[in-house]
Amino acid sequence: MLQVQEVGYGYGHRSWWRSRSESDFVLKRVSFELESACCLGLLGTSGAGKSTLGRVVLGLQKPHQGQVLFEGRDLYAAGGRLRKTLRREVQVVFQDCHSSVNPLMTADQIIGEPLRNYERLSARELKRRTGELLEQVGLSIDDGSKRPDQFSGGQLQRINIARAIALRPKLIVLDEPVSSLDRMHQSLILDLLAELKASLGVSYLFITHDIQAAMTLCDRVAVMDRGEIVHLTDSPDSLRDSGQTAVRDLIEAVLPEHPADRLTLF
Amino acid sequence: MRETNVLEVRGLRVGLKAGEPAELLQSVGLSLGRGRVLGIVGESGSGKSLTCSAILGLLDTRSMTVEGSIRLNGRELTDLPGRALRRIRGKEIGCIMQNPMNAFTPVYTVGSQFVETLRTHSRLSKAQAREQAVRSLESVNLPEPDKIMKRYPHQLSGGMLQRVMIAICLCLRPDLVIADEPTTALDAVNQLQVLRELERLKTECGTSVLLVSHDLGVIAQMADEVAVMRKGEIVEYAGVHELFDDPKHEYTRMLLQARPRIGKEA
Asked: What Gene Ontology molecular function terms does this protein carry (chain A) (predicted)?
């Protein structure tokens, strides 16, 4: 469904006397494929290029090398109407749930916005659809009239998820959707995401630095380190046996579940 | 007996003045011995950070009522005037905030803020303070401390800034460090490094740490005693081994079960 081919991306200026060299690139010839109804985890430390890759896949940043194909069509070559339909198929949930909603809009308006943009619905029909979506993500219809400051982080993230699934997309990019939540809400949101994936048949590109979350939700995991995919596996459980240093560092940094298993810090 | 504890909080109550009288903290009591780590856990909104602000004397007494006693090394903090409190903050109580980006001023270099803090609390010349700052940055394993001194906060990563903050604490050698979610914004690898530096601060300077976190992994790794908070109250207060082996309160049990585990069975 999604093919990312040899994508390179670099930040910073390029000017006439200095072309962008390979060392400026935060993504270095990254390639992977994603089938439908599959969850691919992108795992790595901060600065590995996970989020940049996510933004490239979303169509927000044009890569300087390579191309992104969505169902065989080049995401960045598409214009006009085709671009609009492609946009509809790829949705996103960001880490910071507060800054991804307009504080002046009610939950109904937030969730209804993509529907208003893409479908001609009567006011009553719109209300019904947003109500359904709210219930689908575990909130109640009455929550629809509330504004973002009346929700907790976990509830707000549910609203973001409802907005993402409103148009029945084929792919959702989840950019650290649970990192800012506490452990209890993390596992509740992960459960919800797994449930939605099963019921809607949607694919996820799940960006995270939490190896435990990746192992819980993902079917395949790609480990990124300094702009490259260093490890790609079909069974997340085999991550533990990987010899890659990037993977080992992440595993060794998992904190103990019990004070008796404390790590020796120095 | 009482004087041996670095921090002794008794019957701390915080309420709102405006509108309907609301109790935000209900009779919170804590005690923390020298070189010990007290963990405070609880979900968002349970009053963890409010307790920290109250101890630091940062609550706005025009809109909030603060009652109870807070003793630092046997000295009552609640009656102290603002001037004396300012001398204590930083020098005797160090503080490591959740969001390191907000803890620094974006318009000055990290070095100038470091030097300013050192010179407010001790009689040092600029050159001496500078030298001490560089040595301190070196000791928290930051690469090229001379360069970091000249950087602005946005040029450093969250983990690096957090370590700069710990470096400031190392210099001033406070008796008590309040670490309010020090690793929540960081990825697993950086989290481990920050915890390592905190551990060092504790063993090398004999500093006591009040560690607020919603991550039970962090608590299991670091804490000696744990206070579980919920809705402005401490519902359980126990040694860390006792709490993990035999949680007494219903809520604690729920928190312990909510942790995602490696593998699919969770």
From this structure: ATP binding
Q: Is residue B147 part of a domain?
A: yes
List, for residues A7-34, the tens digit of each pLDDT value. Answer: 888 876 666 666 666 667 888 889 999 9
Q: How far is CA B253 from the centre of its chain?
A: 25
What domain count does chain B have?
Answer: 1
ipTM of the complex model: 0.72
3-state secondary structure A15-68: ECCECCCHHHEEEEEEEEEECCCCEEEEECCCCCCHHHHHHHHHCCCCCCEEEE
CATH number, residue B203:
3.40.50.300
Q: Is residue B106 part of a domain?
A: yes
The confidence score (pLDDT) of residue B40 equals: 94
Closest-CA residue of B relative to A214 is B262
Q: Give me the helix-helix angle, B110-121 and B126-139, nearest 10°.
A: 110
Q: Is residue B266 part of a domain?
A: no
Tell how many helices (H) and how many strands (E) occur in chain B: 11, 10
Q: Which residues of A touch B (CB under 8 A)?
A: 45-47, 152-153, 180, 182-187, 190, 209-213, 215-216, 237, 240, 249-250, 252-263, 265-266
* Torsion, CA A18, CA A21, CA A26, CA A29, rounded to 10: 140
Secondary structure letter of residue A120 according to DSSP: -
Nearest CB among A182, A213, A257 relative to B214 is that of: A182
pLDDT band at A38 (very low <50, low <70, confident <90, very high): very high
Closest CA to B181 of A145, A190, A153, A52: A153
Cross-chain CB nearest to A187 (options B214, B241, B260) = B260
Which residue range is the domain that position B251 belongs to? Answer: 7-257
